[in-house]
Amino acid sequence: MAGAFERRAVILRITGRVQGVGFRWWTQHQAAALGLDGWVRNRTDRSVEVLAAGPSNAVDSLIALCHEGPDMARVDDVSVAQAADPGHVGFSLEATR
Questions:
Q1: Cβ neighbours of residue 52 under 8 Å, at least 6 residues apart?
Q2: What is the pTM of this model?
Q3: 80 contacts 12 by C-beta, under 8 angstroms
Q4: CB 60 within 8 A of CB 1
Q5: What angle do CA 8, 12, 17 make, to 5 degrees?
Q6: Which of 5, 61, 80, 92 has its CA 20 to 30 A from that of 13?
Q7: Which of 8, 25, 5, 6 minimizes the C-alpha distance to 92?
Q8: Average per-residue pLDDT in the chain?
Q9: Where are the chain's structural domains?
Q10: Nearest to residue 47, comparing CAs of 71, 27, 62?
Q11: Which residues are catalytic?
């Protein structure tokens, strides 16, 4: 098991009512508060995709938060896969893909 402060990266795909409810901005705020690097973007299939990298415990916290989402969201599923570290500092909003 990875240590709490070991850096790791994951890609999340969040489905449900997650577009048009402030999910990207909410995720950016949560990730920044946790000290994570990466990005968030809408997908053309109406899901939200997140790449998050940082201390393992902070990544786990973001995953747990994404299961809830902001007040107006309805999260049906959060898929999690290991990812390559994005190699940049900060957490950005990216264009829809």
A1: 9, 10, 12, 31, 36, 37, 38, 59, 62, 91
A2: 0.92
A3: yes
A4: no
A5: 155
A6: 5
A7: 25
A8: 94
A9: 5-9+20-37+46-82
A10: 27
A11: 24, 42
